[in-house]
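Give me the fold.
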Amino acid sequence: MNRRSSSIWDASGLSSAATPPAATPTPIRSITGERSLPGFLVHLRDGRLSDDPDLPGLPVWSGIEGVRAYGLWPRGQLSTATYGSARLLVAGHCLASQEEIAARLAAAIDGVSPDLLTELPGAYACVLVERDRIQMYSDLGGQFPFYLAARGGGWLVSSHARLHGRELDPPAAAVDIVCPHVLPLTEGRSLLRGVREVGGGQVISAASGGVEVRRYAPRLPERVTDPAEGARALRSALVEAVRLRCRSGVVTSDLSGGVDSTALTLLAARLSPEAVDAVVYHHPSAPADDLAQAVRVASADRRIRLATVRGTPDTLPYQRLDQAWADRPAPGALAHRRAMLRLRWAASHGSGAHLTGEGADALLHPSPAYLADLVKAGSVARLVKDSAALAQLRKVAPGGLMSRAARLARTSPAMALRQLGRSLNGPPRGAGSPADAVSWWSVSGEAIGWLAPRVRSDLADIATDPATRRAMPEGVGPADHAALAELRSAAHAQQYLRELGAEAGVAVHAPYLDRAVIRSCLAVPAVLRAERGRFKPLLVAALRDLVPNDALSRTTKGAYQAEEYLGARRARREISALLADSRLVDLGVVDPRAVAVTVTRLFHGAPVPLGSFGRLLALETWLRDT
């Protein structure tokens, strides 16, 4: 008797199995307005699947009501397999065939090693249902997280936090605005009270004993000592990530001219059976130096057809704030019209997969905190040379960088958290120096000053709580912490881009967030991913002879700050009106007078912490759509 079977749902919710679902999965309009974002949920009681008629969607398997899919899933992104009594749901960008998924399920069950299910190519979440347990795996990068909360005497696990219908958690909102890159503060938190985010590399296990969350993969893989070995692993992983996506038919790509998008576009042109359509964004009133670079790259391969989408006043950041939507306030939400120009262009070209470079900065561009690793290793000569190069780039004194590196090398995570607690309890201070990047984390003093006194005090208590210290990733140094924190942020940004893509009708893929790519990059210590005078040398070494030698020579990134300031001035009335009726003020999260000072400076073109301010405004608009 053949114990295996598998099926796949396309965008209409139909199945290629013998018994298709009764109808299209139900859109979750109650939490996403008129948009039918795809997701799934698992409802549990006493460690078993349980039915709740008030939950959206349709059962994935006939007779099993507790696992439901909702929204309109793109073709190939929701698949199932069975092996005996075991059932598997795979959701996201799994690049394996149905036969490979079924074979992996059989190996996992027969070998009693369900963690094997996470090792298929791509980035995806999966749910394994067996007689005596249910296990739910997020992807390694965290772009397909779960949200876990108590419901009706049991537990609800979902793809969207809003499905839980909870209120904002003020301390979590403060973390999101001011210090989202401090991992021990974000671990296990979402923005909603009582809702836990289960992100990259974690699994939820449910059995008769209850519900448990654990890591199925270490924060950092086993390290290599030879950068050439890391480059070979990255080459294999990235080529495979692009090659498998080229099977989807028409592949399109962002092409900003930066090394990340350049690498993906040139690989796609090499591996795709068809020419690759690429797109670069350009705003004539605030050029970011991307257009000329993209044209240069496209000229290196005649199989790349480059198009330019041009920004207008309406595509500037901060325009029509009431229409900036998301399941969570994501990085880039306030500039979503800029992103939608590219995504609608991709949809109009019949894209089967649109490639973005999200995640590459986190994995390939080490934080200056790696200087502390040089101090610990006693690499004095390199410390002097690298400090001088970074000082020239950041326009600071090299001696100051070396001094900070020496201090950082002596600073434990517990000490860093205590210092953060003192900063939160102390008097507000102004903007930090570029040298602040040589630290466990860089937190804007001006942004801290926006927080209401009570929330600042609560956040300081959390920062200095022993439980927070225990949440610090074990064995992770400052540079690695920075990479993991940036990876989490990139995963959230990609999650939002996928939601925008769902509205535009295009599947948005981030190959750098695939499991194999992440592992190959993080296996190389930060000091080996950095090379004086070169930008992302690991990527350059990995793709040597695969792409033209000078294609990855750019050492800068597109600068979009001019668009930020231009957009803010154009939207000053809307921004002022939004903050005059601030939900965050009503909830006691921010001090309106402190925020007003920053807003005035922003309108006059003075330097402000744009990242923190963007997160604050994204949260304001998100609260109005909750």
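The chain has three domains: 4-167+184-215, 227-364+507-559, 571-626.
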